[in-house]
Amino acid sequence: MSIKGTIGEPVSRLEGELKVTGDARYAGDYPAADLLYGYVVNSVITKGTIEKMDTSRALAVPGVVKVFTHENKPSLAWFDFKYADMDAPPGSVFKPLHDDKILYNGQPIALVVADTFEAARFAATLVQVVYKEESFSTNIHDNAGKARDPKKGLATLLKPPPPKPQGDFDQAFSGAAAQVTAHIEHGTEHHNPMELFATTTVYEGKGKLTIYDKTQGTVNSQLYVCNVFGLKFKNVRVVSPYVGGAFGSVVAAAVPAVYVRDGSA
Questions:
Q1: What are phi and psi of 53, to 5 degrees?
Q2: Which 3 state secondary structure label does DSSP give 210?
Q3: Would you state the pLDDT for residue 118?
Q4: Complete edge-to-edge strand list for the sheet that includes strand 128-133
Q5: CA distance 73 to 55
Q6: Tell me, what's the pLDDT at 178?
Q7: Which of 25, 47, 95, 222 could form a cystine bridge with 29, CB 3.0-4.6 A?
Q8: Distances (CA, A) of 178 to 17, 165, 170, 171, 174
Q9: What pLDDT does residue 109 have?
Q10: What's the mean pLDDT in 11-16?
Q11: Is 32 or 40 the better-scoring residue by pLDDT?
Q12: What pLDDT does 246 receive?
């Protein structure tokens, strides 16, 4: 039986030439004369609270328009379900800039918006934060026995649980002709995406937005944006013609740099 044509044969990607020649236009490549640039400030502690945040030095940088924090963010959705997109696991979801609580290291705690990317990035380094740290434990082996049982009800319809065990493994294993038992750990592996983690948002007038997003799920991004900001679905269009890195790199939207046209963010 020949397997020619099914395994090991080269396959031309429709967008391959565009990607390797640089002609593919990704989410961060859509220009406009009046873009504003956003840069995220991340937490440097793993758990605790923000006691004080001073943005005065960042605001003094020429070109900086605004620094958004949990203290001055615009009115956003309140209920958890508004932040739960189609890929969200069951449980309480993370709400960016919601309050002064730090839940994980690297958590976004502010967004600096400026008329150039360089100004936004530099100003982000000038935001001064005073934290009150709390003890934490991030060793998976120390916490493996504390995991809760999967939630039931509607959550199981959206994310079905693993199938129930079948048969008697111990009996089958003990009677097997060959047995292999091992404990294996491997290091962290990371994708190296071709595409910047970025989103370009263009205000089209009359309450309409066009969002160029680094995402595999344009409908998912549209759902999230509309629910969080209280927008009508017909007024939000999400475009992602190419994705330069996905699983293990980004699944939905990742926004360390936000490009906004219309003078607001």
A1: -135, 120
A2: strand
A3: 96
A4: 101-102, 48-54, 128-133
A5: 14
A6: 93
A7: 25
A8: 49, 22, 14, 13, 9
A9: 97
A10: 83
A11: 40
A12: 64
Average pLDDT over residues 225-234: 93
User: What band does 259 get if pLDDT is binned at 50, 70 and 90?
Assistant: very low
Average pLDDT over residues 4-29: 82
Put residue 22 in one of left, alpha, beta given phi > 0 → left and psi -120 to 50 → alpha.
left
Single-letter amino acid code for the residue at 247: F
- The separation between CA 149 and the C-alpha centre of its own chain, rounded to angstroms, equals 25
Alpha-carbon distances, residue 126 vs 55, 60, 90 (angstroms): 7, 10, 37
* CA atoms of 140 and 137, how far apart (whole Å): 8
Most confident of 9-13, 58-62, 83-87, 149-153: 58-62
CATH 3.30.1360.70 fits 19-135+194-261, yes or no: no
Question: What is the residue extent of each domain of the chain?
Answer: 19-135+194-261
Asked if residue 1 lies in contact with residue 220, where contact means CB atoms within 8 angstroms, the answer is no
How long, in residues, is the chain?
A: 265
Residue 132's closest CA among 40, 42, 45? 45
